[in-house]
Amino acid sequence: MVVILTESSDSSSAHDPLFPWLLSIKKSLDEWYSGNVTGADLDKLLSDCISTFKHNAQYLNDLRFLKIWFIYLEGSKDFKIIFLEMEENEICIGNSLLYEWYAYFLEAKGKWKEAHMVYQIGISRKAEPLEKLKGAESLFVKRMSERLNTSSFGKGYNLSKKVYSGKVALSSLKKSSRNKIIEIGRKKYQIKGCAGQGGFAQVFKAYIDSNPDDVVALKIQKPAFPWEFYMYRQLDERILDRQRSSFGFAHKIQIYSDYSILICDYLSNGTLQVGLCPFCSSNRI
Known about the structure:
The chain has helices at 12-15, 18-33, 39-53, 63-74, 79-88, 96-108, 112-124, 130-147, 150-153, 227-238, 241-244, 272-281; strands at residues 157-159, 181-184, 187-197, 201-208, 211-221, 250-255, 260-265. By secondary structure, it is an alpha+beta fold. Residues 1-11 and 274-285 have low confidence and may be disordered.
């Protein structure tokens, strides 16, 4: 489909070369809804528009151009590749709508873990407005918790609507953690050191009730992240017994309104997510 750039009495086309494309895309969408053009025609128009302007600095932060990308993405089977291209070209990368829209799209497809990661990426980049993005992420977590009820997570899932109120502030562990005691339920966990750290979580080696023979890992994350515990329970059901021990076992998770604390086997060879990569790539999970 060819975009016709008509002459205009004003200079809008000269100052805004994207504008005539917007008119053509709107017309094509109307015709597509009415059945007068095919999806292939619309995709070609969208693709041509993106190719024309994706390197134009004038439109890197233009929400109109962002919408064009998403119209194209929603109609494509290769939506992951398209989103990566948006990131590579830094299309509205500092705007929270990039992450909200893509997370909504993934959620609608049932890709909940990927959607949550998109929210977290946007928050880590401090996309603006940041508080709006954090609010959308909180609502997402609430929706997922309602969909995956306690029985879906299995034994060991503990949900509280209250904030964490232990004697040791979890935020203080980033600076100093050694030998601090974290109380979860009726057990006390003595932290012996930080085993790993990311943008949203820290993993600590801990002794249960100060017993060096009873070692676990505590993964403390903000905001709360229940899905890794759910993945552990999926492993219990889907991985053969002889392979299951390679991934470790989750004992329980405590979900607060502000944090989550996952208690699992202490492994020297990395996290569950690292271990799952070969299975995820082969679509076995």
